[in-house]
Give the backbone structure.
Amino acid sequence: MSEMGFGPGEPHRASAWPTGAPRAEQGEAAPTRDAAGRAPKRGLAALAAQPWFPGAAVFGLTLALIVAHQGHLLQYLYPVIAIVAAVVLYFRHPVHWLAFVFWVTFLTPGVRRFADFFNGVFNPVSPIMVVPMATTALAGIGVIRYHRVFAQRRAMPLLLALCGVLYGFCIGVVRVGPMPAIFGLVNWCSPIFVGFHLLIHWRRYGEFRSVLRLTFRYGALVMGLYGVFEFVTMPPWDAFWLIGSQMHSEGDPLPFSVRVASTMNSSGPFAVAAMVCTLMMLADGGRIRAVASCAIVLALMFSSVRTAWGGLVLGLVFPLSALSMRMRMRLIGSGVVLAMLAVPLLSIDKFSEPVMKRLQSMGNLSQDQSFADRSRFYAEFLDTALTDIAGQGLGSTGAATKLDSSSSAGSLAVFDSGLMEIPFVLGWPGTFLFCGGIFTLLGRGFLSAMSIRKDRFAASAVGISLSLLVMLLSSNMLTAGNGNYFYIAVMLPVIGRRAIRHGLAPQAERL
């Protein structure tokens, strides 16, 4: 038996691994290799074979259509080329597929805004918004191909969480109908599949660490700079979106009067992404990181999402406490430099006023309307959420309610507490299974990060997972795009520890 009770390795094919390479364990994905003796590709063929090419082609063509003001063509072409690129990446370059998933999560809402603006019509149901869900759901292919991994102990937490979700799906089909339940199933299961994707490709931890670090660095740079630009100028396409969507909570479509959403749908999802990018960059280095950190933190402040601010502070605790003194002082020094860069800008009234107003509301919560509404929601709904033993099932909350034709559909489209949504949707049996898997994942991630203390990437990931769990007080951070952040955060330290023990990744990062 191999380490931690993992199953024995299966015989490998000579063409799948170079001579002397380790065998893949039963049910595990092996790194893709060219066949022995194949002539190297040159010219355009070599360029197209690069792992970054499909994603670059998608966003290059998208940018060309935006510059050409081809909104109608963009609305239908972007989903096709993005999904095709995701399929190619999933089978050929599984590490870069995960990076592509995050890029489409970051940028797709912005693409939709441009398409609607150049069409001249706000489209409440845009095919563009299918892209993040569809590209993430491809991870389900791995569950089918490597289902035997679920028989191994290391996959037990993911299996528990998946069983809890499947229970909620069965209840949802009965109570709200198949279509809302299926929509909810995709939102709840896709992040679990992303975690499983990391599990079966654990040998590639070094590649995941390198590629994801670049992804979050440049994602922070793009979203941060655009977020500050949006706050200062309020571009017409963003104003058009804000007016058409009628999201009054996002502020006014005027400069210095909007809660920054950057390239994402609203300030809430953007703030979570900004928080995750900031914490991931704790494990990064270089001059670009300094610019990206400054930009994304400023944009996060202009989003006025207090839960993300608190999550960022909490997420810093574990990396600072788990790492060596030298690395700890380096991180503290980076924070000081970042604060020094931000202070001059915040000395300008137009920049500081919305931030200070939001900060002051945290010290006087009794007068804060948002806090009062959430407190009232908890008081009125707590008994309902905890006393429904069977649960309402998947599709009873969130965007899935739009697919329900009943008279009560839509009343819970906005659910202000992930902490209560889980028992309300999954019931007691599903909650027991789901939460058992979640807390086991968190515990394994914590212990794994502690055993590889020199790996700042693993420490940052644990900080992210803790932050997202605390943010369940405001909304559900374990489903859809937010769930992707959580599952990679708890899985990266686990696969990192195993890869390091097998000599497949360096023990420490020298940045």
Confidence is low (pLDDT under 50) at residues 1-25. The chain has 20 helices and no strands. The two ends are 36 Å apart (CA to CA). The CA atoms of residues 272 and 308 lie 6 Å apart.
